[in-house]
Amino acid sequence: MTATAAFAPGLLAAHQIQALRDAGAIVSALPPDAAAPVLQPASLDLRLGRRAWRVRASFLPGQGRSVMDGIRAQSADELDLAAGVILEPGTVTVVELDDRLALPGDVRAAANPKSSTGRIDVFTRVIADRARRFDTIAAGYAGPLYAEVSPRTFPVRVRAGSRLSQIRFAVGDARLDDAAHHALHAAAPLVAGAEPVIAEGVAVSIDLSGFDSAGLVGYRAKRHTGIIDVDLVDALDPRDYWETIHVRARRELILDPGEFYLLASKEAVRVPPDHAAEMTPFDPLVGEFRVHYAGFFDPGFGAAEAGGAGSRAVLEVRSRDVPFVLEDGQIVGRLVYERMSEPPRTLYGAVAGSNYQAQGLKLSKHFRKA
């Protein structure tokens, strides 16, 4: 395949990903969904296939072994997702994805949960044959993809065609260093308000000062709830699934181990049209908690060009083994920007499925708005 010869280094935009599909580097068996296109400005939505296996434990295949080898080693039960199945919290299911890859030798890929997946505390990671790391697909990879799906709080209903993950494709090194982050912010501010802290990305802090007249600062997931159908939008009453958390005099929040919280950043962030961004994973040096399962931010997120004027980053937060105190303004993560190979022709906020443009503290798309 020679279609990538003209790809400049950087993350591939939607029209470049389409070129990969046209050239046979990405093959899908399911028919296109005109109502919900799979292409986003800098990523491709990965749809679940029909076959799935309930496994005892998460695993990586490792060099020389396929994902199916790992599934067979656990004597896993096969499930048929054609009509939909319910995945219970605490279970681990490996699902064959609809897309197969035959990447050129200069194109690599990385996957991440979609925002709506992270906001309902569904832990999902993409696995490739012979992989030694989750969510990482080597340049030149040819073969199937699988998703490991493990709900943590809510039972969920999924089916063939459901979208829990997204994948980005890149040529060369796209990440900015600190000097490039400073230069980009000087040319087009990446956060509104105060000067950002830039060190291995743009620092993101927690806002516990209140988002409305009632002093709402976040949500804590309830236990023993109903099922969430991942394909339904504006369908559920938030009160059946979430407890609200309100501002306190000391502007702090004690995270209870094992509980799941939705909070939001103090910064209103912006992603310029010629860049994308990713929230870095949990950093054990800032505290015993994890922030942000779903880390991709598309070109145009929060940008005035796409009607954003700055958007808060909604943060999925889970404490680890001990209670932990979060304070207003505490840095909890870093947003790392990456160059696009070419700017996308349509920005986030102007495509079907852009549910979180100009957001503040917002639940996933599955819940009815207040």
Summarize the structure.
The protein is mostly beta strands and 370 residues long. The chain is built from four helices and 25 strands.
CATH superfamily of the largest domain: Deoxyuridine triphosphatase (dUTPase)
Radius of gyration: 20 Å
Can you identify the CATH class of the largest domain? Mainly Beta
Please give the largest β-sheet: 11 strands, antiparallel
What would your notes on this structure say?
The chain is mainly beta and 370 residues long. It has helices spanning 14-22, 67-73, 115-118, 178-187; strands at residues 10-11, 26-28, 39-40, 43-55, 77-80, 85-87, 92-102, 108-113, 122-128, 136-137, 142-151, 156-158, 163-171, 202-205, 216-221, 228-229, 242-246, 252-255, 260-269, 275-279, 289-291, 296-297, 311-319, 324-327, 331-339. The protein folds into 2 domains: 3-171, Distorted Sandwich (Deoxyuridine 5'-Triphosphate Nucleotidohydrolase, Chain A); 178-339, Deoxyuridine triphosphatase (dUTPase) (Deoxyuridine 5'-Triphosphate Nucleotidohydrolase, Chain A, Distorted Sandwich). It is 8% helix and 37% strand. Strands 1, 2, 3, 4, 5, 7, 8, 9, 10, 11 and 13 form an 11-stranded antiparallel β-sheet that branches. It is globular and about 55 Å long.
